Amino acid sequence: MYIRGDHAELVVEGRLDVRSAADARTVLHSAVDDGAGDLVLDLTGLDSWDATGLGVIMGAHRRAGRCGRRLVLRGVPAQMQRLLVATRLHRILAIEGGIEAESLPRV
């Protein structure tokens, strides 16, 4: 996993899983704490995430809310969009452009 950016926008690439969760959590928490306004998380280059990675995203979402900020997901890959719909997290998380659950291909 590789994260680059600043306190306003972060780009996540690779896998966000149990092995990279601690590092990702540290970077996300620092970005939330050090900035103001929306924090955009660009997931275009994200290959996959597991339950731990999704937990990191949710933790950053909660932390951002406590700091008066909003975590916004951008470029969520289709397979991860399906997971967000299945878990109904697409109703909680701010997703740029939204997710049309009906338009996602079934697996």
Describe this structure in words.
With 107 residues, the protein is α/β, with parallel strands linked by helices. The protein contains three helices and five strands. It has helices spanning 21-34, 51-66, 78-86, and strands at residues 2-5, 9-16, 38-49, 70-74, 94-95. The protein has a five-stranded mixed beta sheet, covered by helices on one side. Helix 1 packs parallel to helix 2 (51-66). The longest helix has 16 residues, at 51-66. The termini are far apart. The model has no long low-confidence stretch (mean pLDDT 89). This is Anti-sigma factor antagonist. Residues 1-107 form the STAS domain. It comes from Streptomyces niveus.
Mean pLDDT: 89
**Classification by helices and strands:** alpha/beta
- β-sheet strand percentage: 25-35%
Q: Distance between the terminal alpha carbons, to the nearest Å?
A: 26 Å
- Rg of Cα set: 13 Å
Order of strands, main sheet, comes to 1-2-3-4-5
Give helix % range. 25-40%
Q: Tell me about the biggest sheet?
A: 5 strands, mixed
State the low-pLDDT regions, or none.
Answer: none
Q: Write down the secondary-structure element order.
A: EEHEHEHE
Coarse morphology: globular
